[in-house]
Structures are given as structure tokens and as C-alpha cells.
Amino acid sequence: MKQPGTIYEAIGGFDTIDTLVTAFYTHVGNHPKLIPIFPDDLTETARKQRLFLTQFFGGPKWYTEDRGQPMMRRRHLPFEITPERRDAWLACMDAALNETKIEEPYHTAIFEKLTMTAHHMMNTPYK
Length: 127
Known about the structure:
Layout: H1 7-11, H2 14-28, H3 43-56, H4 62-67, H5 72-76, H6 83-100, H7 106-121
Helix pairs in contact: 2-3, 2-6, 6-7
């Protein structure tokens, strides 16, 4: 049996990313700490997240093809990302990972990679 070469392949590819992002933005759209920094219509935000996570976890480089180099910190600088919002974002992602039923060791690997990224995105101290 061939072992998957990437997290993307191991979790089932784009269909799983799509399910994860859909679940995630359902939580984001209802989270009082996150609503102020996200648009009312999350359609385009979710589309970009699908492209990013596909690439981030070893799938096709769709994000770069569509948007250029990720430069995620720079792209997020216009938004106040506090430790509190980082934690809210991670809580929404953890809930989405649970709902998507991504199995171990991939659930933990994904959450750890996204936790490091979320820490990197912080640009505003506690208020």
C-alpha cells in the first residue's frame, strides 16, 4: 500500500479541505471576537482559504497561481489580530477539524501547523 506523500493527500484532498473550510467559516461567521475583522459575506474569504490550505498542506499550488506568493503576515496586517482573536480563530479551526473528522495523526499535525501560523499572524497586543 502506497503511503500518502502529503497531508493533503492523506486527508482526502480538496474535498476534505472544502468541508473543513466550510465548517470553519460557519464558526467564524458566528464568533463575536472574529466578526469585526471578517467581511459580512465570507464567500471570497473562504475561496482563498481553500486555495491556501490546499497549497499549505502539500496539494496543488493554486493559491500562488491565483494570488501570488502567500505572504500571509503582510496580507493580514490591515486587520487587528490580537492574542484573543488568534485564540478564537484557533478554536474555530479546532471545531472544524473535529466536525470534518480528520483522523490522527493528521488532525494534530494540521492544528500544530496552523497554530504556528496563527502565532505568526498576531500584530496587535491585547487591548
